[in-house]
Structure to design on (552 residues):
Protein backbone atom coordinates (compact mmCIF):
# COMPACT_ATOMS: atom_id res chain seq x y z
CA UNK A 1 0.00 0.00 0.00
CA UNK A 2 2.56 2.57 1.11
CA UNK A 3 5.09 1.01 -1.21
CA UNK A 4 3.03 2.22 -4.17
CA UNK A 5 4.05 5.82 -3.57
CA UNK A 6 6.16 6.78 -6.54
CA UNK A 7 6.96 10.42 -5.86
CA UNK A 8 10.69 10.81 -6.05
CA UNK A 9 11.19 7.26 -7.21
CA UNK A 10 14.32 6.95 -9.26
CA UNK A 11 14.52 4.50 -12.13
CA UNK A 12 18.11 3.64 -12.88
CA UNK A 13 19.34 3.90 -16.42
CA UNK A 14 22.00 5.19 -18.77
CA UNK A 15 19.78 6.97 -21.27
CA UNK A 16 20.38 10.39 -22.80
CA UNK A 17 18.00 11.93 -20.31
CA UNK A 18 19.60 10.18 -17.36
CA UNK A 19 22.99 11.55 -18.34
CA UNK A 20 21.91 15.19 -18.62
CA UNK A 21 23.35 17.59 -16.07
CA UNK A 22 20.81 17.82 -13.21
CA UNK A 23 21.05 21.63 -13.33
CA UNK A 24 20.08 21.50 -16.95
CA UNK A 25 17.22 19.16 -16.18
CA UNK A 26 15.90 21.45 -13.45
CA UNK A 27 15.95 24.44 -15.78
CA UNK A 28 14.42 22.39 -18.59
CA UNK A 29 11.65 21.22 -16.30
CA UNK A 30 10.98 24.82 -15.27
CA UNK A 31 10.87 25.80 -18.94
CA UNK A 32 8.52 22.94 -19.68
CA UNK A 33 6.21 24.18 -16.92
CA UNK A 34 6.36 27.64 -18.48
CA UNK A 35 5.51 26.16 -21.89
CA UNK A 36 2.54 24.37 -20.37
CA UNK A 37 1.20 27.60 -18.92
CA UNK A 38 1.97 29.68 -21.99
CA UNK A 39 0.19 27.37 -24.42
CA UNK A 40 -3.25 28.71 -25.20
CA UNK A 41 -4.65 25.96 -27.38
CA UNK A 42 -5.07 22.21 -27.56
CA UNK A 43 -2.58 22.02 -30.43
CA UNK A 44 0.11 23.28 -28.03
CA UNK A 45 -0.74 20.56 -25.56
CA UNK A 46 -0.60 18.05 -28.37
CA UNK A 47 2.94 19.17 -29.13
CA UNK A 48 3.94 19.06 -25.45
CA UNK A 49 2.39 15.61 -25.04
CA UNK A 50 4.28 14.37 -28.09
CA UNK A 51 7.49 15.86 -26.69
CA UNK A 52 6.91 14.14 -23.35
CA UNK A 53 6.14 10.81 -25.01
CA UNK A 54 9.40 11.03 -26.96
CA UNK A 55 11.27 11.92 -23.74
CA UNK A 56 9.77 8.92 -21.94
CA UNK A 57 10.69 6.67 -24.85
CA UNK A 58 14.27 7.93 -24.84
CA UNK A 59 14.56 7.54 -21.08
CA UNK A 60 13.27 3.96 -21.17
CA UNK A 61 10.82 4.62 -18.33
CA UNK A 62 7.91 2.20 -18.78
CA UNK A 63 4.69 3.94 -19.80
CA UNK A 64 2.75 2.43 -16.93
CA UNK A 65 4.86 4.66 -14.66
CA UNK A 66 3.06 7.61 -16.26
CA UNK A 67 -0.26 6.15 -15.18
CA UNK A 68 1.16 5.50 -11.74
CA UNK A 69 2.25 9.11 -11.31
CA UNK A 70 -1.15 10.36 -12.45
CA UNK A 71 -3.18 8.08 -10.19
CA UNK A 72 -2.82 10.07 -6.94
CA UNK A 73 -3.90 13.35 -8.57
CA UNK A 74 -7.01 12.01 -10.32
CA UNK A 75 -9.28 13.41 -7.57
CA UNK A 76 -7.75 16.86 -8.07
CA UNK A 77 -8.22 16.65 -11.83
CA UNK A 78 -11.83 15.53 -11.47
CA UNK A 79 -12.57 18.18 -8.85
CA UNK A 80 -11.13 21.11 -10.81
CA UNK A 81 -12.68 20.09 -14.08
CA UNK A 82 -16.12 19.68 -12.50
CA UNK A 83 -15.82 23.09 -10.85
CA UNK A 84 -14.97 24.65 -14.20
CA UNK A 85 -17.72 22.75 -15.92
CA UNK A 86 -20.38 24.23 -13.65
CA UNK A 87 -19.07 27.67 -12.86
CA UNK A 88 -18.07 29.04 -16.24
CA UNK A 89 -21.13 30.86 -17.45
CA UNK A 90 -19.88 32.31 -20.73
CA UNK A 91 -20.50 30.86 -24.15
CA UNK A 92 -23.39 28.90 -25.59
CA UNK A 93 -25.43 26.87 -23.19
CA UNK A 94 -25.33 23.17 -23.96
CA UNK A 95 -27.37 21.88 -21.06
CA UNK A 96 -29.53 23.56 -18.48
CA UNK A 97 -31.34 22.26 -15.40
CA UNK A 98 -32.61 24.65 -12.74
CA UNK A 99 -29.56 26.67 -11.65
CA UNK A 100 -27.03 24.39 -13.34
CA UNK A 101 -25.85 25.42 -16.76
CA UNK A 102 -23.07 23.88 -18.78
CA UNK A 103 -21.63 26.01 -21.55
CA UNK A 104 -19.38 25.07 -24.41
CA UNK A 105 -16.54 27.22 -23.11
CA UNK A 106 -16.98 25.54 -19.71
CA UNK A 107 -16.50 22.15 -21.31
CA UNK A 108 -13.57 23.44 -23.29
CA UNK A 109 -11.91 24.93 -20.24
CA UNK A 110 -12.47 21.76 -18.21
CA UNK A 111 -10.66 19.71 -20.84
CA UNK A 112 -8.03 22.40 -21.05
CA UNK A 113 -7.30 22.10 -17.33
CA UNK A 114 -7.15 18.32 -17.50
CA UNK A 115 -4.60 18.55 -20.29
CA UNK A 116 -2.63 21.16 -18.38
CA UNK A 117 -2.45 19.21 -15.11
CA UNK A 118 -1.64 16.04 -17.03
CA UNK A 119 1.31 17.65 -18.81
CA UNK A 120 2.57 19.27 -15.60
CA UNK A 121 2.55 16.08 -13.56
CA UNK A 122 3.89 13.81 -16.26
CA UNK A 123 6.65 16.30 -17.07
CA UNK A 124 7.63 16.86 -13.46
CA UNK A 125 7.65 13.10 -12.79
CA UNK A 126 10.17 12.57 -15.55
CA UNK A 127 12.89 14.48 -13.74
CA UNK A 128 12.45 12.47 -10.55
CA UNK A 129 12.34 9.19 -12.49
CA UNK A 130 15.59 9.94 -14.29
CA UNK A 131 17.61 11.86 -11.69
CA UNK A 132 19.00 10.51 -8.47
CA UNK A 133 17.70 12.56 -5.52
CA UNK A 134 21.29 13.38 -4.56
CA UNK A 135 22.04 14.71 -8.04
CA UNK A 136 18.89 16.76 -7.85
CA UNK A 137 19.86 18.46 -4.61
CA UNK A 138 23.39 18.95 -5.94
CA UNK A 139 21.87 20.70 -8.91
CA UNK A 140 19.65 22.86 -6.74
CA UNK A 141 22.59 23.77 -4.53
CA UNK A 142 24.62 24.79 -7.54
CA UNK A 143 21.77 26.74 -9.15
CA UNK A 144 21.04 28.65 -5.97
CA UNK A 145 24.75 29.20 -5.30
CA UNK A 146 24.60 32.94 -6.03
CA UNK A 147 22.20 33.39 -3.11
CA UNK A 148 25.15 32.73 -0.78
CA UNK A 149 26.16 36.33 -1.40
CA UNK A 150 23.08 37.52 0.46
CA UNK A 151 23.87 35.11 3.32
CA UNK A 152 21.25 32.59 2.32
CA UNK A 153 22.40 29.18 3.69
CA UNK A 154 22.24 27.39 0.33
CA UNK A 155 24.42 24.46 1.31
CA UNK A 156 22.55 23.86 4.55
CA UNK A 157 19.18 23.94 2.82
CA UNK A 158 20.45 21.55 0.15
CA UNK A 159 21.83 19.25 2.84
CA UNK A 160 18.48 19.30 4.62
CA UNK A 161 16.73 18.39 1.38
CA UNK A 162 19.20 15.60 0.72
CA UNK A 163 18.66 14.16 4.17
CA UNK A 164 14.89 14.51 3.92
CA UNK A 165 14.85 12.72 0.55
CA UNK A 166 17.23 10.09 1.83
CA UNK A 167 14.88 9.28 4.71
CA UNK A 168 11.62 9.12 2.79
CA UNK A 169 12.00 5.45 1.82
CA UNK A 170 13.40 4.61 5.26
CA UNK A 171 10.43 6.14 7.01
CA UNK A 172 7.95 4.53 4.61
CA UNK A 173 9.52 1.17 5.35
CA UNK A 174 9.43 1.92 9.06
CA UNK A 175 5.75 2.92 8.87
CA UNK A 176 4.97 -0.33 7.09
CA UNK A 177 6.79 -2.29 9.77
CA UNK A 178 5.07 -0.54 12.67
CA UNK A 179 1.67 -0.92 10.97
CA UNK A 180 2.31 -4.63 10.56
CA UNK A 181 3.38 -4.92 14.19
CA UNK A 182 0.25 -3.16 15.45
CA UNK A 183 -1.95 -5.15 13.11
CA UNK A 184 -0.39 -8.26 14.60
CA UNK A 185 -1.65 -6.96 17.95
CA UNK A 186 -5.17 -6.75 16.62
CA UNK A 187 -5.25 -3.13 15.45
CA UNK A 188 -7.76 -2.47 12.68
CA UNK A 189 -6.29 0.37 10.68
CA UNK A 190 -8.56 0.28 7.68
CA UNK A 191 -12.05 -0.08 9.06
CA UNK A 192 -14.48 2.21 10.86
CA UNK A 193 -15.33 5.87 10.52
CA UNK A 194 -12.94 8.79 10.16
CA UNK A 195 -12.56 9.47 13.90
CA UNK A 196 -11.98 5.80 14.60
CA UNK A 197 -9.38 5.55 11.87
CA UNK A 198 -7.50 8.63 13.04
CA UNK A 199 -7.53 7.23 16.56
CA UNK A 200 -6.27 3.90 15.27
CA UNK A 201 -3.29 5.71 13.77
CA UNK A 202 -1.97 6.85 17.15
CA UNK A 203 -0.22 3.52 17.84
CA UNK A 204 1.52 3.93 14.48
CA UNK A 205 2.37 7.63 14.65
CA UNK A 206 3.90 7.71 18.12
CA UNK A 207 6.50 4.99 17.47
CA UNK A 208 7.15 6.56 14.06
CA UNK A 209 7.87 9.98 15.56
CA UNK A 210 10.07 8.49 18.22
CA UNK A 211 12.03 6.57 15.63
CA UNK A 212 12.35 9.64 13.40
CA UNK A 213 13.79 11.66 16.27
CA UNK A 214 16.10 8.81 17.21
CA UNK A 215 17.36 8.57 13.65
CA UNK A 216 17.84 12.32 13.43
CA UNK A 217 19.83 12.30 16.63
CA UNK A 218 21.98 9.36 15.52
CA UNK A 219 22.63 10.99 12.16
CA UNK A 220 23.59 14.30 13.78
CA UNK A 221 26.05 12.52 16.05
CA UNK A 222 27.50 10.54 13.14
CA UNK A 223 27.95 13.75 11.13
CA UNK A 224 29.59 15.48 14.08
CA UNK A 225 31.95 12.52 14.45
CA UNK A 226 33.02 12.91 10.86
CA UNK A 227 33.73 16.59 11.43
CA UNK A 228 30.89 17.96 9.34
CA UNK A 229 30.84 21.72 9.63
CA UNK A 230 28.83 23.03 6.75
CA UNK A 231 29.62 23.74 3.14
CA UNK A 232 32.66 26.01 3.50
CA UNK A 233 35.55 24.58 1.52
CA UNK A 234 33.79 21.29 0.95
CA UNK A 235 34.49 19.54 -2.33
CA UNK A 236 32.16 17.22 -4.21
CA UNK A 237 32.80 13.61 -5.05
CA UNK A 238 30.77 13.94 -8.24
CA UNK A 239 31.31 17.26 -9.96
CA UNK A 240 28.44 18.44 -12.11
CA UNK A 241 29.44 18.93 -15.71
CA UNK A 242 27.54 20.77 -18.40
CA UNK A 243 28.45 18.78 -21.52
CA UNK A 244 27.61 18.46 -25.18
CA UNK A 245 24.47 16.41 -24.60
CA UNK A 246 23.18 19.21 -22.38
CA UNK A 247 23.46 21.60 -25.29
CA UNK A 248 21.39 19.20 -27.40
CA UNK A 249 18.82 18.89 -24.59
CA UNK A 250 18.58 22.62 -24.09
CA UNK A 251 18.22 23.10 -27.84
CA UNK A 252 15.30 20.63 -27.97
CA UNK A 253 13.59 22.49 -25.15
CA UNK A 254 14.08 25.87 -26.84
CA UNK A 255 12.59 24.43 -30.01
CA UNK A 256 9.57 23.22 -28.06
CA UNK A 257 8.99 26.64 -26.52
CA UNK A 258 9.45 28.36 -29.85
CA UNK A 259 6.90 25.95 -31.33
CA UNK A 260 4.38 26.72 -28.61
CA UNK A 261 4.87 30.47 -29.03
CA UNK A 262 4.41 30.17 -32.81
CA UNK A 263 1.23 28.16 -32.31
CA UNK A 264 -0.05 30.83 -29.92
CA UNK A 265 0.74 33.65 -32.35
CA UNK A 266 -0.94 31.81 -35.20
CA UNK A 267 -3.90 31.32 -32.91
CA UNK A 268 -4.25 27.59 -33.52
CA UNK A 269 -6.62 26.06 -30.99
CA UNK B 1 -4.40 -31.94 12.27
CA UNK B 2 -1.47 -29.57 11.94
CA UNK B 3 -2.11 -26.14 13.46
CA UNK B 4 -0.25 -24.44 10.62
CA UNK B 5 0.15 -25.73 7.12
CA UNK B 6 1.39 -24.06 3.96
CA UNK B 7 0.97 -25.39 0.45
CA UNK B 8 3.32 -24.27 -2.34
CA UNK B 9 3.54 -20.86 -0.68
CA UNK B 10 5.28 -18.32 -2.90
CA UNK B 11 5.72 -14.60 -2.41
CA UNK B 12 7.07 -12.15 -4.94
CA UNK B 13 7.91 -8.60 -3.90
CA UNK B 14 7.47 -5.71 -6.31
CA UNK B 15 5.91 -7.70 -9.12
CA UNK B 16 6.17 -5.82 -12.39
CA UNK B 17 8.83 -3.37 -11.25
CA UNK B 18 12.59 -3.50 -11.79
CA UNK B 19 12.90 -4.48 -8.13
CA UNK B 20 10.95 -7.73 -8.50
CA UNK B 21 12.27 -10.43 -6.19
CA UNK B 22 10.98 -13.85 -5.19
CA UNK B 23 11.33 -13.90 -1.41
CA UNK B 24 9.96 -17.37 -0.79
CA UNK B 25 9.36 -20.06 -3.34
CA UNK B 26 7.10 -23.08 -3.16
CA UNK B 27 7.17 -23.64 0.58
CA UNK B 28 5.06 -26.52 1.89
CA UNK B 29 5.38 -27.20 5.60
CA UNK B 30 3.26 -28.54 8.43
CA UNK B 31 3.60 -27.50 12.04
CA UNK B 32 1.81 -29.50 14.72
CA UNK B 33 0.03 -28.23 17.78
CA UNK B 34 2.31 -27.74 20.77
CA UNK B 35 5.48 -28.03 18.75
CA UNK B 36 8.49 -25.77 19.22
CA UNK B 37 9.86 -25.05 15.76
CA UNK B 38 13.07 -23.18 15.07
CA UNK B 39 13.63 -21.40 11.77
CA UNK B 40 17.17 -20.74 10.59
CA UNK B 41 18.59 -19.30 7.41
CA UNK B 42 20.96 -16.53 6.49
CA UNK B 43 19.83 -12.94 5.88
CA UNK B 44 17.44 -12.71 2.93
CA UNK B 45 16.52 -16.39 2.99
CA UNK B 46 12.84 -15.51 3.43
CA UNK B 47 12.35 -16.21 7.14
CA UNK B 48 10.58 -12.96 7.95
CA UNK B 49 8.50 -13.13 4.77
CA UNK B 50 7.38 -16.65 5.63
CA UNK B 51 6.23 -15.83 9.15
CA UNK B 52 4.30 -12.76 8.01
CA UNK B 53 2.21 -15.10 5.89
CA UNK B 54 1.29 -17.23 8.86
CA UNK B 55 -0.87 -14.49 10.42
CA UNK B 56 -2.12 -12.96 7.21
CA UNK B 57 0.02 -9.81 7.16
CA UNK B 58 1.26 -10.71 3.71
CA UNK B 59 -0.90 -12.23 1.03
CA UNK B 60 0.69 -15.10 -0.88
CA UNK B 61 1.48 -14.49 -4.54
CA UNK B 62 0.48 -18.10 -5.01
CA UNK B 63 -0.15 -21.07 -2.78
CA UNK B 64 -2.14 -21.17 0.43
CA UNK B 65 -1.84 -21.00 4.19
CA UNK B 66 -4.02 -23.08 6.49
CA UNK B 67 -4.45 -22.30 10.17
CA UNK B 68 -6.43 -24.90 12.11
CA UNK B 69 -7.30 -26.49 8.81
CA UNK B 70 -8.96 -23.38 7.34
CA UNK B 71 -7.53 -21.47 4.39
CA UNK B 72 -6.88 -17.98 5.78
CA UNK B 73 -7.50 -16.30 2.42
CA UNK B 74 -10.71 -18.20 1.76
CA UNK B 75 -13.18 -15.46 0.84
CA UNK B 76 -16.10 -15.00 3.18
CA UNK B 77 -14.92 -17.41 5.83
CA UNK B 78 -11.66 -15.76 6.72
CA UNK B 79 -11.42 -13.33 9.61
CA UNK B 80 -7.97 -11.79 9.57
CA UNK B 81 -8.35 -9.97 12.85
CA UNK B 82 -9.33 -13.14 14.67
CA UNK B 83 -6.47 -14.94 12.95
CA UNK B 84 -3.94 -12.36 14.12
CA UNK B 85 -5.09 -12.88 17.67
CA UNK B 86 -4.70 -16.64 17.32
CA UNK B 87 -1.29 -16.38 15.74
CA UNK B 88 0.73 -13.88 17.76
CA UNK B 89 3.74 -12.40 16.02
CA UNK B 90 6.61 -10.68 17.79
CA UNK B 91 8.58 -8.71 15.22
CA UNK B 92 12.29 -8.01 15.20
CA UNK B 93 13.11 -5.20 17.63
CA UNK B 94 9.52 -5.18 18.93
CA UNK B 95 10.32 -2.38 21.40
CA UNK B 96 9.93 0.07 18.49
CA UNK B 97 6.19 -0.53 18.51
CA UNK B 98 5.66 0.63 22.11
CA UNK B 99 3.49 3.74 22.23
CA UNK B 100 1.28 3.97 25.31
CA UNK B 101 1.74 6.18 28.35
CA UNK B 102 2.41 3.30 30.68
CA UNK B 103 3.81 -0.18 30.30
CA UNK B 104 0.59 -1.64 31.64
CA UNK B 105 -1.56 0.13 29.07
CA UNK B 106 0.78 -0.83 26.28
CA UNK B 107 0.62 -4.50 27.18
CA UNK B 108 -3.17 -4.13 27.39
CA UNK B 109 -3.42 -2.81 23.81
CA UNK B 110 -3.61 -6.26 22.18
CA UNK B 111 -6.13 -7.88 24.56
CA UNK B 112 -8.21 -4.68 24.43
CA UNK B 113 -8.42 -5.07 20.67
CA UNK B 114 -9.57 -8.59 21.43
CA UNK B 115 -12.47 -7.09 23.35
CA UNK B 116 -11.32 -7.84 26.90
CA UNK B 117 -12.25 -5.35 29.61
CA UNK B 118 -12.08 -4.70 33.35
CA UNK B 119 -10.93 -7.42 35.69
CA UNK B 120 -10.34 -9.93 32.89
CA UNK B 121 -8.09 -7.45 31.10
CA UNK B 122 -6.11 -6.59 34.23
CA UNK B 123 -5.62 -10.24 35.02
CA UNK B 124 -4.25 -11.14 31.62
CA UNK B 125 -1.95 -8.11 31.54
CA UNK B 126 -0.61 -8.95 34.99
CA UNK B 127 -0.06 -12.52 33.87
CA UNK B 128 1.87 -11.37 30.77
CA UNK B 129 4.01 -8.89 32.68
CA UNK B 130 4.87 -11.52 35.24
CA UNK B 131 5.61 -14.08 32.55
CA UNK B 132 8.29 -11.82 31.06
CA UNK B 133 9.61 -10.84 34.48
CA UNK B 134 8.60 -7.18 34.59
CA UNK B 135 8.41 -6.10 38.22
CA UNK B 136 5.12 -4.46 39.29
CA UNK B 137 6.90 -1.17 40.08
CA UNK B 138 7.63 -0.79 36.37
CA UNK B 139 4.03 -1.25 35.27
CA UNK B 140 3.00 2.36 35.74
CA UNK B 141 6.17 3.77 34.19
CA UNK B 142 6.37 5.11 30.65
CA UNK B 143 7.71 2.39 28.35
CA UNK B 144 10.27 4.90 27.08
CA UNK B 145 11.89 5.14 30.51
CA UNK B 146 12.76 1.45 30.56
CA UNK B 147 16.11 -0.05 29.66
CA UNK B 148 16.57 -1.81 26.34
CA UNK B 149 16.04 -5.28 27.77
CA UNK B 150 13.00 -4.18 29.76
CA UNK B 151 11.46 -2.56 26.69
CA UNK B 152 11.93 -5.81 24.81
CA UNK B 153 10.19 -7.71 27.61
CA UNK B 154 7.30 -5.23 27.65
CA UNK B 155 6.86 -5.62 23.90
CA UNK B 156 6.87 -9.40 24.12
CA UNK B 157 4.39 -9.22 27.00
CA UNK B 158 2.12 -7.22 24.67
CA UNK B 159 1.85 -10.25 22.40
CA UNK B 160 1.74 -12.87 25.18
CA UNK B 161 -1.20 -11.00 26.70
CA UNK B 162 -3.31 -11.99 23.70
CA UNK B 163 -2.71 -15.65 24.63
CA UNK B 164 -2.09 -16.70 21.05
CA UNK B 165 -2.45 -20.35 20.13
CA UNK B 166 0.68 -19.98 18.06
CA UNK B 167 3.46 -17.65 19.13
CA UNK B 168 5.95 -16.57 16.49
CA UNK B 169 9.09 -14.67 17.44
CA UNK B 170 11.48 -13.08 14.95
CA UNK B 171 14.91 -12.94 16.57
CA UNK B 172 13.53 -11.94 19.95
CA UNK B 173 16.97 -11.65 21.56
CA UNK B 174 18.76 -9.71 18.82
CA UNK B 175 20.86 -6.81 20.04
CA UNK B 176 20.58 -7.60 23.74
CA UNK B 177 23.51 -8.19 26.08
CA UNK B 178 24.25 -11.81 27.04
CA UNK B 179 22.25 -11.61 30.27
CA UNK B 180 19.26 -10.10 28.46
CA UNK B 181 19.58 -12.69 25.71
CA UNK B 182 19.54 -15.54 28.21
CA UNK B 183 16.59 -14.05 30.06
CA UNK B 184 14.47 -13.66 26.91
CA UNK B 185 15.23 -17.20 25.79
CA UNK B 186 14.29 -18.67 29.14
CA UNK B 187 11.06 -16.63 29.15
CA UNK B 188 10.14 -18.23 25.83
CA UNK B 189 11.06 -21.72 27.02
CA UNK B 190 9.07 -21.30 30.22
CA UNK B 191 6.08 -19.99 28.28
CA UNK B 192 6.19 -23.02 26.00
CA UNK B 193 6.57 -25.42 28.91
CA UNK B 194 3.72 -23.85 30.87
CA UNK B 195 1.20 -23.26 28.10
CA UNK B 196 2.03 -26.10 25.73
CA UNK B 197 1.25 -23.73 22.89
CA UNK B 198 2.95 -23.83 19.53
CA UNK B 199 6.06 -21.66 19.36
CA UNK B 200 7.95 -20.72 16.21
CA UNK B 201 11.32 -19.09 16.78
CA UNK B 202 13.58 -17.43 14.26
CA UNK B 203 17.11 -17.15 15.55
CA UNK B 204 20.65 -16.74 14.31
CA UNK B 205 21.97 -18.23 17.51
CA UNK B 206 22.08 -21.96 16.93
CA UNK B 207 22.56 -22.68 20.62
CA UNK B 208 19.11 -21.20 21.30
CA UNK B 209 17.53 -23.39 18.66
CA UNK B 210 19.40 -26.45 19.90
CA UNK B 211 18.28 -25.85 23.48
CA UNK B 212 14.61 -25.21 22.74
CA UNK B 213 13.31 -26.49 19.44
CA UNK B 214 11.76 -29.87 18.59
CA UNK B 215 12.17 -29.42 14.89
CA UNK B 216 14.15 -26.99 12.74
CA UNK B 217 13.19 -25.47 9.42
CA UNK B 218 16.22 -24.46 7.36
CA UNK B 219 15.55 -21.91 4.64
CA UNK B 220 17.99 -21.15 1.89
CA UNK B 221 17.36 -18.69 -0.93
CA UNK B 222 13.64 -18.68 -0.21
CA UNK B 223 13.28 -22.45 -0.37
CA UNK B 224 13.09 -25.20 2.20
CA UNK B 225 16.53 -26.73 2.55
CA UNK B 226 15.41 -29.14 5.24
CA UNK B 227 12.73 -29.45 7.91
CA UNK B 228 13.52 -32.11 10.45
CA UNK B 229 14.35 -32.87 14.05
CA UNK B 230 17.16 -30.96 15.68
CA UNK B 231 19.39 -34.08 15.74
CA UNK B 232 19.13 -34.67 12.04
CA UNK B 233 19.50 -31.01 11.10
CA UNK B 234 22.69 -30.52 13.10
CA UNK B 235 24.09 -33.79 11.77
CA UNK B 236 24.31 -31.97 8.43
CA UNK B 237 26.70 -29.51 10.04
CA UNK B 238 29.10 -29.24 7.11
CA UNK B 239 26.29 -28.40 4.68
CA UNK B 240 24.93 -25.78 7.08
CA UNK B 241 28.35 -24.21 7.41
CA UNK B 242 28.66 -24.07 3.64
CA UNK B 243 25.39 -22.10 3.58
CA UNK B 244 26.91 -19.60 5.95
CA UNK B 245 25.04 -20.88 9.01
CA UNK B 246 26.84 -21.81 12.15
CA UNK B 247 26.09 -24.83 14.28
CA UNK B 248 25.91 -24.93 18.07
CA UNK B 249 29.32 -24.60 19.66
CA UNK B 250 28.96 -27.88 21.54
CA UNK B 251 28.33 -29.67 18.25
CA UNK B 252 31.48 -28.07 16.82
CA UNK B 253 33.50 -29.35 19.77
CA UNK B 254 32.31 -32.91 19.25
CA UNK B 255 32.87 -32.83 15.52
CA UNK B 256 36.39 -31.57 16.28
CA UNK B 257 36.95 -34.38 18.77
CA UNK B 258 35.85 -36.97 16.25
CA UNK B 259 38.22 -35.52 13.64
CA UNK B 260 41.01 -35.91 16.14
CA UNK B 261 40.23 -39.60 16.41
CA UNK B 262 38.31 -39.68 19.66
CA UNK B 263 35.35 -42.07 19.41
CA UNK B 264 32.45 -39.74 20.28
CA UNK B 265 28.98 -39.39 18.83
CA UNK B 266 28.66 -36.19 16.81
CA UNK B 267 24.92 -35.62 17.13
CA UNK B 268 25.43 -33.73 20.37
CA UNK B 269 24.47 -30.10 20.66
CA UNK B 270 23.39 -29.35 24.23
CA UNK B 271 25.51 -29.05 27.33
CA UNK B 272 23.54 -31.82 29.03
CA UNK B 273 24.02 -34.30 26.22
CA UNK B 274 27.70 -33.34 26.10
CA UNK B 275 28.06 -34.08 29.81
CA UNK B 276 26.49 -37.52 29.36
CA UNK B 277 28.67 -38.28 26.37
CA UNK B 278 31.87 -37.30 28.14
CA UNK B 279 30.82 -39.33 31.18
CA UNK B 280 30.29 -42.33 28.91
CA UNK B 281 33.74 -41.84 27.39
CA UNK B 282 35.75 -41.59 30.57
CA UNK B 283 33.90 -44.24 32.56
Amino acid sequence: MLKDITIGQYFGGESFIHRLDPRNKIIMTALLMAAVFVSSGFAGYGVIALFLIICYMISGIPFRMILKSIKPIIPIIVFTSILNLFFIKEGDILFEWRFIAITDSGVRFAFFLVARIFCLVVGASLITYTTKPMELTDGIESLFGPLKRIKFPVHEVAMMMTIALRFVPTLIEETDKIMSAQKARGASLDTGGLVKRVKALIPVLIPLFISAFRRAHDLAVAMECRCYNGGEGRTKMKKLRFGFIDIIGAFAMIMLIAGIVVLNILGVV
Amino acid sequence: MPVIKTENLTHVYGRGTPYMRTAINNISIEINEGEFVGIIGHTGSGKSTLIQHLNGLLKPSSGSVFVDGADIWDKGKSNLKQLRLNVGLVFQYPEYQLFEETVFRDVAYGPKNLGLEGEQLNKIVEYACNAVGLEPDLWEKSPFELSGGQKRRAAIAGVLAMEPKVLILDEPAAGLDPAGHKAIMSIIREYHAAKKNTVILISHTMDDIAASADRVLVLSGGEVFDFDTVDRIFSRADELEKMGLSIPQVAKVFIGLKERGIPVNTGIYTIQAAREEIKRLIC
